[in-house]
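**Folding the chain**
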Amino acid sequence: MTIPASTYRIQFRSGMTFDRAAALVPYLKQLGISHLYASPIFTALSGSTHGYDVINANEIDPAIGGREGFDRLVKTLQQAGLGLIIDIVPNHMASSLENAWWRDVVEHGENSRYAHHFDIDWSRRLTLPFLGDDFEVELENGAIAVKPDPQTGKPALAYYEHFYPLTPASWQDRAEAVLQLTDKADIAALHDSQPYRLMSWRDAPRDLSFRRFFEITGLAGVRVEDKAVFDDAHQLILELVRSGAVQGLRVDHVDGLADPKSYLERLRQEAGPDCYITVEKILAKGEHLPADWPVSGTTGYEFIASLSEALVDGKHIRQLRQAYETLLGKPVDVQAELRAAKMLMATRNFAGEATRLLQLATTIAAADNEPLEEKALLTALRELLVAFPVYRTYGTTEGLPPEDADLLLKVADEVRQGVKAPDPEALGFLTRIMAGEVSAAASDDAASFRTRFQQLTGPLMAKSVEDTLFFRLHMALALNEVGAEPMPDDFSPERFHQEMQERLARQPDALSGTSTHDTKRGEDARARLYTLSEAPERWAECVSRWRQGNQSQVVQLKDGPAPKPAVEWMLYQSLAGAWPTDLAPDDAEGLKALEERFTGFVEKALREAKLRTDWADSNETYENAVLDYVRHLLSPDNQAFLQDFTASLQPFIHAGLVNSLTQTAIKLTAPGVPDIYQGSETLDLSLVDPDNRREPDFCALEQLLNQVEQVDPANEAHWLDGRLKQQLIAKVLPLRQQLPDLFRKGDYLPLSATGQQAENVLAFGRANDEAALIVILPRLVFNRLQEAHWAPAEIALPEALAGRRYINLISGAESALETSFSLAGGDRRMPVILLSR
């Protein structure tokens, strides 16, 4: 298997085509990239901006160049010596009439060839929750009629521009008569004879007959656990791998599958041993990827969480929390907040999925003569779902693996002892179902319960934490990242080193990402916001002053001020992270551009919090009041604030730029495969999607890379435009291709510094029989920005690194090192990366 030395993620669509990507290949090669890493390339919904709403997995999307454009890209990559990794989406497809498989299911119901390709409950009619109101209301309002489908000419139920096909038995031999139907009762009767039921989108959380992706009804779950479905959905994917066009696959949302391990085993068998496969899998702190999965690792969210151990000031983070809680006027109970968010998801957003589990449980209880009340079962089910600490377990029809069985018992015991403890008999019964301890007659239903429970805990966790809690708790937004936890109390470089050693042992070939299309903010915004932990009192004073200066813009509504203090804290911190390094307070055009991006983020943040507004029921009065506050902040007329904000932000910006180089150097040299997200080779100060999916200025990036002779750490402009970061990447990445075994398998050696600035140093080595690497990086520099050079500090070298001659990859200087390396006099802002062979 060829393991990538590095990857570069490109987002196709929204203007990015195969031919445009092919034109970037010389730049990627010059940067040192070994593999282009493509977002989904298969045909998606018309106008899709991301490609995860696939409508045909066996066609390359004509919107981005089709098969011919793809082949041209592959040829260009191969001529340049680069490989290709593609993002595949086995869990779901678009539940759209554009999707031929789905359309056939809508038209023919359970008689469709594809009826069991999707995860549909065929004990009832297929629910189509795409109406603005109930069917009866829309019919009465004249929004539903019978008309010929413009594409097929067949009679269809027309709802605005949508034409839902009628099942043949309901109109064949009487097409003209059906098309003449105008009486609402007759149309209702015709609708009742269909294998589907049109319904309001608002009813989807409670009453859905198909499994969806998270809570997105426009994406229907696919049953790839069925071999026939797998084969149908992977024809083109496997052709591309077997032909040599594609060298690697990134599996989207692997936890959504019924049996991830079996799917991955089948994929490995069909794709062959040489295909590089990674999975999008979010690991909780201390959780590990199952060792028996035939993959090279994850896409790297846990790597981001590890970086915070190195870059957050563990000694002062509690002061930041105290300042935040003082602002709130109360302490934050994170566990209570998490429970509230998860219970909201379980009882509202995923009520239908919970109801389906309840139905299975009651059926099993009846079969096994368990006298349990439905209410008690539902309460126990919700408590078990809410208490689950990881995304899912990996039970099969045979039951749970030992480690998951132990986890289940632990969780059940915590629920049993909790303040909201449910009926113990109901809880015990549910744990027995999960463990497979039921009668033979109930074993199939128990297996179905187990699978659906496991497919629900992941979305429940994701929507509760990433898409709710992260928008409610704002203490340190840099920590509110996919795979991490909000408001942890402890950070240490020692733990970082431990996690890197575990990474080397468990998944040395996993991707190491710092920005993705799904991260909550760009990597350099996060690097900047880490510095708040170094100066919490200073930050709190700034927020207090800014709040006071803009107090006149706070609107008093019936349900409280808009914005409340906690939201103000979030706004100022988010703005600090996203503020362009070169934006001046009197730059009206620049302020307007930032406002357009920032107001979109704020609207999303308010709705994701689900406190005073929501996606389902937006509170426009509240939202407009907060958005007006934001517009005031960024108004060129608000110079007093803008001047203060810009000046106060400067030390955070500069300390953040140092952090940026440190985290980049870690990504390039620590265990794992460095993944560069498009544009993040310079500065990525993006906000949450869709802001982070904007296309970078590739022409400017290419021009910047070619200015290598002009790069100077002493020139502040070269920090502010990101060229130092880009040049660091371009210098180190080629090394990974020259010495692959050093970076894949070389020992990871934590190093310690001595001296008065020891806590400001993060250092480690990589070594094998072929070569050695020493990496020495600055950390916690906020309060030392005025010190241009290192004070005396020594790095002791273990035997594997000592007694060698090294070259500094940044400066080019050579030196012989015996037992230690001295930092004294060096630029304290710059990484030191030393290579010996």
The longest strand covers residues 54-60. Residues 100-217 form a domain with the Maltooligosyl trehalose synthase, domain 2 fold (CATH 3.30.1590.10).
